[in-house]
Amino acid sequence: MEQLQKRNIKLIFLLVFFYGMSIGVWADFAQIWLNEQGVIISYIGLIIAGATLFAGIVIIILIRYLKKFNELIILKFSFVAKSFFLALMFLGSYFSIKWLCILGFLIDSIINNLIVASVYPTIAYILKNDKIYSKRKLIEYSATDLGLLLASFLIGKNIDSYFINYDSMILLSLLFTTCASVIVLLIKNQKIFYASHKIDIKKIFKDKIICVYLVYYFIGRIAYYSALGMQLLLIVKYAEFTSSTAGLFIVVSCILGDIFGIIALKLTPKNDYITILIKFFTRFLLYCLIIIIPVKLVLLIGIFFSLFISRSYENKTDAVYINRCKKEDLFTFNNIRYIFGYVGNALGVLIIGFTFNLGLRYIFGICVIFLFTQIVMALFLVKMRKNEEIKLSAIEFENANIDTK
Q: What was the pLDDT predicted at 195?
């Protein structure tokens, strides 16, 4: 059984790798591709927000009405469906059918959200700890970066008489998605993948720390996406980079962030307050600097650091709260968390969609309000955990004295 579990978790990590590659070669360029199909930027924001919100609705239906779920079945269905709608997008572009392009992009965005929501609970039924959570995220991040790097080098090149364009990236994404689909079929469908218990959402919300964490996560998603929800388009317009150069800038920033994330996982500060300030406060200061001095160099420094640090310390900013839940409650909680996150993502993308053409001061001016709130809530969460630890230590000490007497 233990050997089978190790095999399954390796397959899931391999699945995450190919999924990350499929996202990396296409996701950032999809916004520019849609713009070239004749969809204006504010509408792109609405499409992404709509897809994100709809994914949240689907998850609500899953956790509310299904008596028995299988996260593995959700993953299998999602990858097959993703392959179909990627093909639909390609056909829409090839035959210049605008509504087909939009439909394919919309459904693909919804499916991506469902995949992300299902992967970690599937892993956690096998092995749950804070470092495993960060490891899974780092694998996904690294694969996404490699995909983006590959796409940035390929776009605009010629192979014999074939010109590599955005449509080619859809096909490449389809290839990696097919690889992921094959891998997910190899994972053995054991009972550990089932969440057949009675769903009790009220039990999850009885934990005050969890409740505060969900609000913190919601605010954090708005803070991130209201500035970087259309990061490639942002760099192309305001730094005047080509899409390929902008892609390389993003991927270099992210790869360096991956390297730092691995180091940070091993050398995380013991003081959680310091960890929070490293991750968020420097970003806050740089965003304020962009507002004061809205020039290319400052913008690039701000985006670079934000991407660089975003991959680090998730074992302290997220995993420590996610893993408070028991294994049997994790799928329900994780999907509730993603509902909060999806709404935050959607609002963030809507904000940048409507402020995109107003200038950097408007984009980052709204963002820093949410970012400051996120920092305050992150510090408050650390304080709540510390107080909880003190109370538990006091109870254990008191019980030990009673036993001694």
A: 46
